[in-house]
Amino acid sequence: MRYALRRLGFFVLTLWVALTLNFLLPRLMPGNPALAMMSKFHGELSPKALNALEILFGVNTHESLVGQYFGYLHQILTGNLGTSLDEYPASVTSVIGSAIWWTLGLIGVTTVLAFILGTGLGIVSAWRRGGKLDSIVPPVFVITSAIPYFWVAMVLVLVFGLTLKWFPSQGGYYVTTDSPGLNLTFIQDVINHAFLPAVSLLITTIGTWILTMRNTMITTLAEDYVRMARAKGLPGRRIMFDYAARNAILPNLTGFAMSLGFVVSGAILIEYVFNYPGVGFMLLQAVSGEDYPLMQGLFLLITVAVLFAILVADILTALLDPRTRAAR
Amino acid sequence: MAMPVSGVPSQTPAAQVPAGRALARVGRAITSNRKATVGSILLAIFILIAIFPYAIAHESPIQDAYAPQLGISTAHLLGTNHYGQDLFSQLVWGTRNVMIIALVVGLATTAIAVLVGVAAAYLGGLWDSSLSVLTDVLLVIPLFPLLIVIAAYAQGGTTLVLIAAITLTSWSYTARQLRSQALTLRNRDFLEAARVRGERRLYIIVVEVIPTMISLIVASFLTNALYAVLFASSLQFIGLGDPNTVSWGTTLYWAQNNAALQTGAPLWAIAPGACIAVLGAAFALLNYAFDEIGNPALRPVRKIRQKRKAVQLASGDVEGVQ
After folding, report:
1. pTM summary value
2. Which of A61, A148, A171, B322 has its CA 20 to 30 A from that of A261?
């Protein structure tokens, strides 16, 4: 319980740092870039929206920095992230709401798949030490883990999207012919469109799972309790899963938390290459359109999502491994 | 990899040798480990290209003096792009920008990581708690979105802005690893001896602790350099770099802007990405090799038996030194 509280405290602290960064960055940059953006849209905004944006970016205010800061925190914590400028008059929260499901679906499904496949391959590779799988898998995935996500995406677009034409390579569904909703063609098209982005994400993330799992598993296999299990004559499969893998999987869970930031980052670029209508693609559009409120909102959302996932992974690790509760 | 140091079965032998011998060991390890050899040869090639780009590509990279969209030929090894620029020479000249970023960010982040990690572990107490919290906070904030926001507010990053932004944000992962290793050193006899001799803390950290961690520090440099390349190229690719810089990421940006893949010029987009991938692989291979050197249990099985004798000899040797 104390452990969970401490992790929760860390969650809040990190969130506060992210909020503060969001507050300071536009104000610290030479010639507050938000100023130019505001003057561009000045005539078109309602007074209420304008006021919210002024609080967010510290424009047109005579308040001290501290006063601005509390005004900013108050506004964010009441859920007002301002108005999107490119999608005016839609609020930032509603614009993000339309994109988030695409990303959650894509990253969620792919990450779970990568975790299961990668951990499994890692287990087998360590168990059959020096076997065929073990001699191929580590070097190959050392290399794939260094390849930029977007490059894998580009190659897949080129080969399977444009040359072989097996899968669509742009967008999340056929915007012109599909009617979004619960109909079979739409669902089928969504899956078809998600296939190549998902594969790119899978190829680039699976290596970390395999290598971490394999390396911990090798250490675990040398433990006395594994030798004991062998001496008792337990079947190999049982030793592999119930004795070795069960103990070796913990670093993979912690690694899951740590790598999540990278996965999200990679997904941004993959969405960009595929023009996939998720949060990452939207972030880049907000940047190129100088829609700073939307950009800030997305950064906060991504941070909160990652922090939340880490919190869950931490608590999960603590439930599974009593040692972490006592440690530190 | 994110191996917890406590999971390493035997203490890293390198942790107990003086710096000079540790470097010699690193040199020997590079020649004896196949991954390390491949990695260092690739890296050496890139470094040479970065220093002497004119030796293999004479054409100016941004001059658009050729016919657009020429195919592959001896005059244009990778053809020309929509603007009539020679793609091969763009990649060759672009190597320099990438390598500068890798080197500078790699060195700077590693310096910060060593400082923070070792200071936290060695000073302990309040220092450790506050530095660790700082490290952990930075570790979990998603870096790439943060870099995007910084670069966007900076109105597009020149190479200098990219270097500064990446350095300030991405040192935490290796700082954490270094702290873990420094913690295991903390109560070693030779540090106790230095304390008894009455050496100052700074002296002990710089002269006694850091040299014994040299192999992990080299590994940290490789990790940081790899991420620097990936982050910087990605930022340039999405248009947050300076579009006039000659760099692989910038080439990618122009390729994407002109829909190179869709308009029959796939090499324009694929080739610079391949360069990044190969350079990244070089760093990763070297890094993995260092992991194997530090943790003998991970070495390929067929080698373990013949290595075992050598390791025994070496560790006997080390105990003699202590």
Report:
1. 0.82
2. A171
